[in-house]
Structures are given as structure tokens and as C-alpha cells.
TrEMBL record:
<dbReference type="GO" id="GO:0008311">
    <property type="term" value="F:double-stranded DNA 3'-5' DNA exonuclease activity"/>
</dbReference>
<dbReference type="InterPro" id="IPR037493">
    <property type="entry name" value="ExoIII-like"/>
</dbReference>
<feature type="binding site">
    <location>
        <position position="149"/>
    </location>
    <ligand>
        <name>Mg(2+)</name>
    </ligand>
</feature>
<keyword id="KW-0464">Manganese</keyword>
<dbReference type="GO" id="GO:0006281">
    <property type="term" value="P:DNA repair"/>
</dbReference>
<comment type="similarity">
    <text>Belongs to the DNA repair enzymes AP/ExoA family.</text>
</comment>
<feature type="active site">
    <location>
        <position position="106"/>
    </location>
</feature>
<keyword id="KW-0479">Metal-binding</keyword>
<dbReference type="InterPro" id="IPR004808">
    <property type="entry name" value="AP_endonuc_1"/>
</dbReference>
<feature type="binding site">
    <location>
        <position position="34"/>
    </location>
    <ligand>
        <name>Mg(2+)</name>
    </ligand>
</feature>
<feature type="site" description="Important for catalytic activity">
    <location>
        <position position="218"/>
    </location>
</feature>
<dbReference type="GO" id="GO:0004519">
    <property type="term" value="F:endonuclease activity"/>
</dbReference>
<feature type="binding site">
    <location>
        <position position="147"/>
    </location>
    <ligand>
        <name>Mg(2+)</name>
    </ligand>
</feature>
<keyword id="KW-0460">Magnesium</keyword>
<dbReference type="InterPro" id="IPR036691">
    <property type="entry name" value="Endo/exonu/phosph_ase_sf"/>
</dbReference>
<dbReference type="GO" id="GO:0003677">
    <property type="term" value="F:DNA binding"/>
</dbReference>
<feature type="site" description="Transition state stabilizer">
    <location>
        <position position="149"/>
    </location>
</feature>
Length: 257
């Protein structure tokens, strides 16, 4: 089974790119972030025509997450991250597909640091940790997948010394990511490629993609009850080079049945 995540940076504006990639890569499950579209403007017809059913949580102009599935029913669990009834940002959606819990997230960016946006990021991470702890305790096969807006280590960023006070690389968020690993979650790509430079995002400015001056923000974390099924994975970096593409590239793994 092939499971992927892709921050599309506007699902309608980049729909041709998304559809081209779906046809080429043929993933079974896809998590999308940054839909940047209200609920009623999600392109469900085109997604259905491509062979996928979907659930989504839209938001006008910003955020937005979706889960797509081919050949497997999607049972929605929740479309907000528990813990803050006043949080109206569309950043989390959770479903059961093929007896797995799929948790698609678009974690807050947090910049500028310091400030209220960074504080919101830390509080969001705290809520996420509570949910991930619950999934571990319930001994469920689960996947935490999406745009984490966290650069885990110096290996995951071009020229890390420039990022010390960026909310993506602050010590607080790196420690939070590391804590997930200590609780039993597996960083699938880093496990498969422990010593390789892997990036999933390249800024539109300064020819970052051409210079491979990127960062790794998009992650697929497996609960202990799925780790033995990890077969392969990668980043479809070439998609970032397509015309009118997102500044992120799709990230994927394959699980043994």
C-alpha cells in the first residue's frame, strides 16, 4: 500500500499538477495540506474522476486539509484536533482507512519568533502530543502524516546556522519532534535513509530548487504497530520542478500488506 502526503499550496490553482501526479504516482492514500479553499470549493468531482474518494476540511484563503483514498472506504473520525474549542483553523483531519488511523495535519508555521504565532504553534503541538499518546496507548496502527512545519535536525536543512531563530527550527519544536520518536513513533523517511540529505520544500525565491537549498518539513510517522510493515519510501522531487507546482514535493511510503 502506497501512502503519500502533499502540501499542494492551493488545491484549485494547482489542480492540474495534483491530478498529473496522482496519475503518475498512483498512491492508495493521500493526505493534502494548504487547500486554501472553502469547504464548498474543494474539487471533489475532479478527484472522484481521478479514482479517489475524499474527506476534507476547507477554509477560505488559508489552511485546509484532506484525505484521499483509492479502493478503500474512508471513515472520518474527527476534523479538528481536540483540546481547544476556540481554534477555528482547519489543520487536522483523522480517518480510518483499511483498519489504520490516518491523522493528516498541517501544523502551524509559528513565525515570527518570538510572538503569539509561535505560542500558538507550541500549544498546538501540545494538543497533538496528547492525541498521539492516546493512539499509542490504544495500541492502534496509526500514521501521523503531513506538513509538520518542523525541521527535525541540522541534516534536514540547507545551511542550518541561518535557521536558529526560525520557528521551523527552534529548539523547542525540534525537541517536541524528538519526543514523538521517544514515545515510539517512527520517522519513516529518516529510518529508510539515515545518512542522506532529504528535502521536501524549496522556496520560490533565490532559485532554491535549482540549488537544492531546501528543508525537510513533510513527514510520515508510523506507530509501533506499523513499523515492521515499512517497505520503501521517497520524495517525488521532480514534481517540484513542474510548471506552476507547489513549493513542496510529494512524500510517500509503501507498507507491506
Amino acid at each position: 500500500m502506497k501512502i503519500a502526503t502533499y502540501n499542494v499550496n492551493g488545491v484549485n490553482g494547482r489542480l492540474p499538477v495534483l491530478l498529473q501526479w496522482l496519475k503518475e504516482a498512483e498512491p492508495d492514500i493521500v493526505c493534502l495540506q494548504e487547500l486554501k479553499a472553502p469547504q464548498e470549493r474543494f474539487p471533489i468531482k475532479e478527484i472522484n474522476d481521478a479514482g479517489y474518494q475524499a474527506i476534507w476540511k476547507g477554509q477560505k484563503s488559508w489552511n485546509g486539509v484532506a484525505i484521499l483514498s483509492k479502493n478503500h472506504e474512508i471513515v472520518e473520525v474527527q476534523n479538528t484536533l481536540p483540546g481547544d474549542d476556540e481554534d477555528v483553523q482547519s489543520r487536522y483531519i483523522e480517518a480510518i482507512i483499511d483498519q489504520m488511523v490516518i491523522c493528516c495535519l498541517y501544523l502551524p508555521n509559528g513565525n515570527p519568533y518570538p510572538g503569539p504565532k509561535f505560542d500558538y504553534k507550541l500549544s498546538w503541538i501540545k494538543r497533538l502530543k496528547k492525541r498521539t499518546d492516546e493512539l499509542i496507548k490504544m495500541e492502534l496502527p496509526a500514521i501521523i502524516i503531513g506538513d509538520f512545519n518542523i525541521i527535525p535536525t541540522a541534516m534536514d536543512v540547507y545551511k542550518p546556522e541561518r535557521w536558529e531563530n526560525d520557528a521551523l527550527y527552534r529548539i523547542e519544536v525540534r525537541k517536541a519532534y524528538e519526543d514523538l520518536m521517544k514515545k515510539g513513533w517512527l520517522d519513516s523517511l529518516r529510518t529508510l535513509y539515515p545518512d542522506e540529505v532529504i528535502y521536501t520544500f524549496w522556496d520560490y525565491l533565490y532559485k532554491a530548487y535549482d540549488r537544492n537549498a531546501g528543508i525537510r518539513l513533510d513527514h510520515i510517522l508510523l506507530s509501533p504497530y506499523l513499523t515492521s510493515r515499512l517497505k520503501s519510501g521517497g520524495v517525488d522531487k521532480h514534481v517540484r520542478g513542474w510548471e506552476k507546482s507547489s513549493d513542496h514535493a510529494p512524500v510517500w511510503i509503501e507498507l507491506l500488506k
